[in-house]
Design goal:
The complex is a heterodimer. Chain A contains 11 helices and 2 strands, in the order ααββααααααααα. By secondary structure, chain A is mainly α. In chain A, a hairpin with a 2-residue loop joins β1 and β2. In chain B, a hairpin with a 2-residue loop joins β8 and β9. The chains are: A mainly alpha, B alpha/beta.
């Protein structure tokens, strides 16, 4: 049963290999951006020992980990892919197969993203880790929890993009809503820019009711040891709740979309 | 027992009217007016296992809408569809396992991947057992000569090569019914002939029921035994191709090269439909007058150089049916 979805992952992974030049360019640009951030924070910390529980080493670790995780946001093109499938009518071909559309999309995205993780994120992280003497997670268990948290965050990001993509069944143009959610809200509240502890209270409060901090902030804060014990468990439970809610919402959305397509025609 | 039964099938679409002008377009966001388009209008037919049927009609006649309902991706407005005992739109997944679909204008292959990878993907999607997959792949690569480009990415294939791969992709899981929507569109003569030959063989050897929609009546004439013509959502002809010719193709055309330009041509039971210099086109109904009678008349009155009789092409017949309706 799962085997037929796993092959989508494998093929998507292989397919990514086709566009090597694009991938290298992406990596180079990412590294330059990260360098800028790292030096910015080094400058900001001159004469400071610790802010909000982050010393220089910890803040640099935070920045590098969160910047690395941000790569998923840049490279996940799920909304755009769905929009294109709807626009070209290719979605009909998917409908004519004995397959679940949401699972298939996730399996495909996972293939592309595994490639990104292996050939972009990991080397990038190791480069910065080696160059700037960053911290490792406090324990092996934390490392495992970090990885789990990254996966949960990834599914949340995927689900948001999936739902936005499904809007293409009703809207002619989804770029607006995509920009609002992914470039606006997600950038603001996911914590890639700076740790959420640094935010003014009212912004932090808004962020708490939104799913975005579960994408980057939670896993990063688990890595740096900022979230430990009870707060770590709470964070992961919140992630699980968002996964369930958004996957479920995506399912409802695409069922409604397909019903519309099937009843009214494409 | 028929494999497909369609009874009083209709599909109506609401088409919203767009109003021009600022205030009018503003008011149409509140209350929209619409027309009802009857894309498919009270259509009934049934197909037996192993039939090879051409489903033809002009653009917008309702061909694709019918196919979409048969494949389960469109819900009928009214009427009844039974495909292999299933109601396609209710049992979509179950239905898709047992059918194959090819759209001439679209590919189900993965653009960036080698052809063989798409096949492997389909093997998993349809859960095709390894030995059946191997057997079918060998069969189709042999028949369609896919070997030279099996490891070429789909985006680098020619249209003809891609269509051969798409046909294979639609048949790997041994479907009982194959739906083809314009499979020869854009192909050159050789590639078209290859596709037609293939369809005949697949139908004969594997007992696959084939429904083919097309604009190209040569496809129908060379491939199908039966023809369904749909126009403005209604079936206007359903029967054999020879019967169609028999019924609507009684008019013969005699093309005559006269030795000199006679000013006035008088013949009984014959219509002079066209004249170009010394060449004349004479139409006659073969039930009223035989070709030899026409020729006797002609040679008695005029001096002729050459003559040919042409049978009506299926294309001509269908064009006439579209223009005048069925009598």
């Amino acid at each position: 049963m799962m085997k037929k979805y796993l092959i989508f992952t494998v093929k998507a992974f292989q397919r990514t290999l086709t566009y090597r030049f694009e991938l290298w360019m992406e990596l180079v640009i990412n590294v330059l951006f990260m360098l800028v951030y790292v030096y910015l924070w080094k400058a900001l910390y001159t004469g400071q020992t610790s802010v909000e529980g982050y010393d220089l080493n910890k803040i640099l670790t935070y920045i590098v980990v969160s910047q690395t995780l941000l790569t998923f946001t840049f490279t996940l093109r799920v909304a755009r892919i769905i929009e294109e499938k709807v626009r070209t009518g290719e979605v009909v071909t998917d409908l004519m197969k004995p397959i679940d559309f949401q699972l298939m999309t996730l399996a495909t995205a996972a293939g592309t993203s595994s490639h990104t993780a292996l050939f972009n994120m990991l080397p990038k992280f190791l480069l910065f880790y080696g160059t700037f003497g960053l911290l490792l997670p406090p324990s092996l268990l934390t490392l495992l929890l970090f990885i789990t948290s990254v996966v949960l965050g990834y599914i949340i990001l995927f689900s948001l993009e999936f739902i936005i993509g499904i809007f293409a069944f009703w809207l002619v143009e989804i770029r607006g809503i995509y920009a609002l959610v992914i470039w606006g809200l997600s950038m603001l509240f996911s914590g890639y820019f700076l740790p959420l502890e640094f935010y003014p209270t009212f912004l932090a409060k808004i962020g708490e009711v939104l799913p975005f901090r579960a994408i980057i902030y939670f896993p990063t804060a688990i890595y740096t040891g900022q979230l430990m014990g009870e707060s770590l468990v709470t964070a992961m439970l919140i992630q699980l709740a968002w996964v369930a809610a958004l996957v479920g919402l995506g399912r409802l959305a695409y069922r409604a979309a397909f019903r519309k397509l099937v009843i009214q025609g494409g | 027992m028929p494999i497909i039964t369609v009874e009083h099938l209709s599909k109506h679409f609401k088409v919203y009217k767009r109003r021009t002008g600022f205030w009018r377009s503003l008011s149409s966001t509140v209350s929209r007016r619409h027309d009802i388009i009857k894309a498919v209008d009270d259509v009934s037919f049934s197909l037996d296992r192993g039939e090879l049927v051409g489903y033809i009609g002009a653009n917008g006649a309702g061909k694709s809408t019918t196919i979409k309902m048969l494949t389960g991706i469109l819900v009928p407005s009214s009427g009844h569809i039974d495909v292999m005992g299933l109601t396609p739109y209710r049992q979509r997944k179950e239905n898709t396992r047992r059918i194959g679909v090819v759209f001439g204008q679209r590919t189900q292959l993965w653009w960036d991947l080698p052809v063989i990878d798409s096949f492997e993907l389909l093997k998993q999607i349809y859960e095709i057992p390894q030995n059946l997959y191997k057997q079918n792949l060998e069969f189709f690569s042999e028949m369609l000569q896919l070997q030279p480009f099996l490891s070429t990415p789909v985006r680098r294939l020619s249209l003809g090569q891609r269509m051969r791969c798409d046909l294979t992709a639609a048949l790997l899981h041994d479907p009982e019914i194959l739906y083809l929507d314009e499979p020869t569109i854009g192909l050159d003569v050789v590639a078209k002939e290859q596709v037609r030959q293939f369809l005949r063989e697949v139908n004969a050897e594997r007992q696959v029921t084939v429904i083919l929609t097309t604009h190209d009546l040569n496809d129908v004439e060379k491939v199908c035994q039966r023809l369904i013509i749909i126009d403005s959502g209604k079936i206007i002809y359903d029967g054999g191709i020879n019967a169609l010719k028999e019924r609507y193709g009684k008019t013969r055309m005699l093309i005559v090269d006269l030795a000199q330009g006679y000013s006035d041509i008088q013949l009984e039971g014959v219509d002079l439909t066209r004249r170009d210099g010394n060449r004349i086109w004479l139409a006659f109904d073969r039930d009223t007058i035989s070709a030899s009678e026409v020729i006797v008349q002609l040679t008695g009155r005029y001096e002729i150089q050459d003559l040919t009789i042409s049978e009506p092409e299926i294309e001509e017949i269908v064009r006439r049916i579209y223009e005048m309706g069925v009598h």
